[in-house]
């Protein structure tokens, strides 16, 4: 199995030409904003774009102008360029990156948030004269993970930005950030990737996948190559097929099969499987509600038989009732994670909640 490249070494970025053009125009105007909030769903390439732009800035505006010697027309920096190599090896003196730190000395688990100690040195770093005579750049990935003290420390830097210093904040949920941070950044919104682009990237990064599986994972990814890769690596497609197979028995579930499934995904060593199943079931129910809202039009199947299953369930109960089940199951799985409820019981409870509504409507 191939390893997913870290954004700092990811040379290929697709599907975000309009966003790259915005950054290029800002650079070429000579009035580059000192802070950018790069927003969009998780796993679509926001951090890769941040590193791509950082390399461009640290290289003094790329590798030359356009075709006729004009301003640069691409953010691309070749993999052999010294700046690319130093950024990839985390050895560029003018680039500082902030991510969640390790919670233990053995580096086995990350902290749940970015704390003030992680960002304390940003102000001093950005105030220094650039070692290579150009810019100082800070990337925060992701800004959503900053706690209040860390956010306040970053805000102080944003309020008095040093000259020739650039801050790039990656955000999956900008609404969670302090309004004062949002107001001091120029926002750059990235859109989900086209399904075909996700499938192409899967073919490159997971060449062992069969074509049909690749297409199904691209659909499950909903425009996020990060999500599609995670599902591929965690056996998410097989788990999704099992979820749909169980639901296909409605209005009466195969209880022995459900218990066997719950036993397997709830084992302590199957932590990733439990999270994947909970996420997939919540996603499937949200998809069911969306299908009902559009009367089933345009909802492409991930696995065969889904459309017929959704049609049966939508005929069995109102959209409002299915929305209530989605909310109930979302809360159930969130509580199972937060307060360590019995995971098997959470899985059983979720499927049985769906069964109760399906049976009530079929009487």
TrEMBL record:
InterPro entries: AAA+_ATPase, DNA_Rep/Repair_Clamp_Loader, P-loop_NTPase. It comes from the Bacteria. This is DNA polymerase III subunit delta. Transmembrane segments: none annotated. Residues 32-193 form the AAA+ ATPase domain. PANTHER family: DNA POLYMERASE III SUBUNIT DELTA (PTHR11669:SF8), REPLICATION FACTOR C / DNA POLYMERASE III GAMMA-TAU SUBUNIT (PTHR11669). Gene3D superfamilies: P-loop containing nucleotide triphosphate hydrolases. Pfam families: DNA_pol3_delta2 (PF13177). GO terms for cellular component: DNA polymerase III complex. One of its GO terms (biological process) is DNA-templated DNA replication.
């Amino acid at each position: 199995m191939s390893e997913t490249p870290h954004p700092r070494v990811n040379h290929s970025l697709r599907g975000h030409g309009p966003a790259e053009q915005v950054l290029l125009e800002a650079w070429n105007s000579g009035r580059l904003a000192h802070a950018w909030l790069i927003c969009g769903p998780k796993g679509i390439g926001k951090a890769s774009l941040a590193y791509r732009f950082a390399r461009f800035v640290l290289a003094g505006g790329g590798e030359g102008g356009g075709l006729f010697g004009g301003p640069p027309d691409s953010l691309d920096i070749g993999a052999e360029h010294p700046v690319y190599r130093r950024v990839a090896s985390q050895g560029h003196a003018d680039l500082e990156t902030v991510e969640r730190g390790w919670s233990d000395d053995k580096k086995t688990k990350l902290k749940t948030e970015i704390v003030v100690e992680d960002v304390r040195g940003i102000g001093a770093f950005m105030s220094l004269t650039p070692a290579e005579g150009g810019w100082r750049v800070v990337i925060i990935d992701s800004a959503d993970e900053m706690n209040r003290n860390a956010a306040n420390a970053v805000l102080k830097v944003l309020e008095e930005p040093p000259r020739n210093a650039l801050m790039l904040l990656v955000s999956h949920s900008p609404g969670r950030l302090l309004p004062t941070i949002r107001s001091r950044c120029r926002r750059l919104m990235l859109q989900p990737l086209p399904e075909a682009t996700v499938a192409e990237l899967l073919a490159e990064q997971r060449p062992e996948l069969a074509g049909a599986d690749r297409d199904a994972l691209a659909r499950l990814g909903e425009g996020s190559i990060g999500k599609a890769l995670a599902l591929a690596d965690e056996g998410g497609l097989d788990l999704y097929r099992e979820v749909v197979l169980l639901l296909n028995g409605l209005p009466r579930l195969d209880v022995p099969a459900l218990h066997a499934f719950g036993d397997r995904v709830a084992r302590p060593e199957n932590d990733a499987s439990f999270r994947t199943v909970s996420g997939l079931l919540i996603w499937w129910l949200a998809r069911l509600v969306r299908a009902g809202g559009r009367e089933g039009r345009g909802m492409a199947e991930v696995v065969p038989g889904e459309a017929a299953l959704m049609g049966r369930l939508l005929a069995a109960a109102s959209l409002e009732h299915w929305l209530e089940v989605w909310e109930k199951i979302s809360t159930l799985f969130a509580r199972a994670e937060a307060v360590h409820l019995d995971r098997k019981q959470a899985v059983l409870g979720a499927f049985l909640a769906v069964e109760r509504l399906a049976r009530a409507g079929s009487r």
